[in-house]
Amino acid sequence: MSNILTCDALSKSFGSVVVADSISFSIEKGEAVGIIGPNGAGKTSLFNLITGTLQPTSGQVHFKAQDITPKNSATRCRAGIARSFQIPQPFAGMSVYENVLVAATHGASLKPQQAQATCIDALEQTGLLARVNDLAGSLTLLERKRLELTRALASNPSLLLLDEIAGGLTDKECQSLIETIQSIRATGVTIVWIEHVVHALLAVVERLIVLDFGKIIADGEPNTVINSQVVRENYMGIAADA
Amino acid sequence: MVWVNSILQGVLLGGLYALFAAGLSLIFGIMRLVNIAHGDLIVLAAFLGLVVTSSLDIHPLASLVVVVPAMALLGYLLQYLLLNRTMSDDILPPLLVTFGLSVILQNVMLETFSADPQKMNTGALDTASITVGALHIGVLPLLMFAVAIAVIAGLQWLFYHTAIGRAFRATSDNADIAQLMGLNKKHVFSLAMALSLAVVAIAGIFLGTKTSFDPSSGPARLIFGFEAVIIGGLGNLWGTLFGGIILGVAQGIGAQIHPGLQQLAGHLVFLILLAIRPNGLFPRVAH
Ligand SMILES: Nc1ncnc2c1ncn2[C@@H]1O[C@H](COP(=O)(O)OP(=O)(O)O)[C@@H](O)[C@H]1O
Ligand SMILES: [Mg+2]
Question: Distance (Å) from the C-alpha of residue B163 to the closest C-alpha of chain A?
Answer without folding.
Answer: 7
